[in-house]
Amino acid sequence: MLLAAIEEKPRHGYELIKELEAKFGGGYAPSPGSVYPTLTLMEELGHVRSVTSEGPKRLFEITAEGQSYLRENQAALNSALARMEMAARAVSGERPPEDLHTQCTR
């Protein structure tokens, strides 16, 4: 999810936390203790690079390797996005789709 958000546009860690919180409808916000180590790992893997901006803040942008990784894992990304959308609906009080509700109660 972080890599997909960075692909949309380069972002700072705090922006990524707020973006994911918004995608969950405010019902979940990842902690800095999970986001920043993940950004470091993605940088070590060559999926993102960081540039210094605005003082100590680092701006993360996707690399060609990161774009390839996203394309290779598109199905997993789509699945995560769908689950996040359902979580956001649940936070807003909306019921899950009827076919999902039926499958879960059988």
Describe this structure in words.
The protein has a two-stranded antiparallel ribbon. The chain has 106 residues and is mainly α. It is globular. The mean pLDDT is 85. Helix 2 packs across helix 3. It has six helices and two strands, in the order H-H-H-E-E-H-H-H.
Key descriptive features of the protein:
2 strands; 6 helices; 106 residues; mainly alpha
Please mark out the parts with pLDDT under 50 across 5 or more consecutive residues, or reply none. none
Q: Per the principal axes of the C-alpha atoms, what is the gross shape? A: globular
Calculate the terminal CA-CA distance, rounded to whole Å. Answer: 31 Å
Q: What's the main sheet like?
A: 2 strands, antiparallel
Structural class: mainly alpha
How many β-strand stretches? 2
Sheet with most strands: strand arrangement: 1-2
Short structural summary:
The chain has 106 residues and is mainly alpha-helical.
Summarize the helices and strands and which ones pair or pack.
Elements: H1 2-8, H2 13-23, H3 32-44, E1 48-52, E2 58-62, H4 64-72, H5 74-91, H6 98-105
Antiparallel strand pairs: 1-2
Helix pairs in contact: 2-3
